[in-house]
Structures are given as C-alpha cells and as structure tokens.
Amino acid sequence: MAARDLRGGIAGAPANGRGSGRGNGSAATGRDAGRAGGAAKLRAGAELLAAPLPALLAEAEHLAQTVLLGAHGRRRSGQGDEFWQYRPAMAGDAARSIDWRRSARSDAHFIREKEWQAAQSVVLWVDEGASMRFASGGHGSKEARANLLAMALSVLLMRGGERVALARLGTPPQSGALQLLRIARGLSREAARPDYGAPQAGAMQPHSRAVFFSDFLGDIEPVVAQLTEAADRGVKGALVQVLDVAEESFPYDGRTVFESMQGSLRHETLKAGDLRGRYQVRLAERKDRLMALARATGWQYLCHHSDGGAQAALLWLYAALERRR
Question: Which end of the chain has fewer CB atoms surrounding its CB within 10 Å, N or C?
C-alpha cells in the first residue's frame, strides 16, 4: 500500500503527459510506403516488447554467475544413464553392482556409480498483483526484485539440467535458452492487475518443486488453499516474502493518506505514527502465519527486503530447493 505524507507532497507520483507536434514534409503514399510504414510499426512494437528482456536476462545471468553453482555442483550418485565415478565396494553392496572389468585391474572390487538423473521440475509463481509495484527510497520495486530472483533461479536450475516453468504462462516445465526467453518475456509482460495476487498451483506436477514470490500482504486464504493443494500433490518448495523496507519500518508520521496501488482502498489519518505499533504487530502475525504454514506443508520460508542483497537470497533459495529433493 502506498502512502502519501501530505506535509511533504506526494512522493513518486507518476507524471503522464501527452504531446503533439507538426512537421513539414509530404506524406508518403502508395503501396511501398504503406508496407514500409507497416514494417516500421511492427519493428517498433517488437523492440518495445523486447526491450526489458535483455536487461533482465543479463542481470539474472550476472547474479547466477556470482553464485558459482551449476550442473557440476549438483551431481550425485543415483539412478541414471551417465557414468559418474568408481568407488570401492563396501559391505552391503550387491554383487551385481560390482564392475568386474574395472575390478579386474586391481586387487579391490569397485562399484560403477551413475549420476543422479531423476526427472526434476520447478514451477515459479511470481505475484502479478499491483501491490508488488510499490517502492520507496529510490530503490527498485518488490516486483523488480522478485522477477530478478525468479529469473536468476531459472538460470541456475537449468544449468543443473532441471526443467523450469513460470506458472502464469500455463506451459509445462522445460529447459534451454528458449525457455529462459519465454520466462523472461512472461515476467516482463503487462496485464490487468488486482491489488493482490494469488498463487497458482494447478500447473504443478506431483512430487515436483515450486517457489512462490509475493509480498503476501493480501488475503491469506487463497495462499493457504493453493499451498495445501500443492502439498497434497507432494510438491515441496519455498515461500519468498518480498517486502519494501518502508513496509517493515512504517516511517510515516502526521497527516498521511494510505491507498492501495490501484486506488481501491484508501485511509487517511492525522496521526500516522500512532498506527505504527498496531501495523507492525499485524505484519509480525502475518509472517508467523506464513512460517507456520510452511512448516505444516514441508516448505521453507524466507522474508527478503527489496533493498537488500539479491545474492544471499538466491543462495538461500538454491539451497532450499536442494533440501527439498
């Protein structure tokens, strides 16, 4: 929810303007000119649509690179087709597991281990609610940070050979550069937004993994319902609550107007400071509810501030998904 301190003016209000102008010159006519105009319009539209994608991908790739975790870091023994390593046979190993050809070259018996390759898929839900656009203090919005974390996590997971899907696209988990581009495009799309979003568990495959990115400040019941449905399918994962620092500290005093990002909710007070204690109690209660919900369903919970370092959050996420295998 955005706040306006009336003594200091309206901070961050968007300025929209329209301009018009007249130029000299004759208008292009004819079929060729029409085609050229259509091509130029199509190109301009495509460039506008694609503009956010390289920046998001580049930032996500850079963040993922700093973590220095990829396919090699996730290798382990298990069921699969690719050879991983030989290890000395131990008591309890079945005789059929011994690689007799390798063992014949030494005085010991060796087991041929294959790389763990069980099919893994991860579904990412990133809240599209208008509340995620809130930002204070000149740093990025909650939405921008959630998008960056989701994109960087996708890069890391795909480097590890796993498949990823973005819930809002409604497509199955896939891997590869094209899937990364689809996810980036999905994260950058513009759509009609409610004040607060609700998770989508319908596309999650049984026994897969998922991550929910949201401020979780809206109605908690849809979150409970979707997380319960996901848990019933054996889906494990993480809740990442992304908050702005102002939503934690409540730095408002005096006459202040609080309104939702869509303007559907509005509250004016002459003594905003008097609300601080009650607000922080309710915020703490919401965090406790999310943590309890995560524990009950076997998920992990993280509260992340949009002005904090993204690398630590990404490391936590990667480790959390590793524990959920």
Answer: C
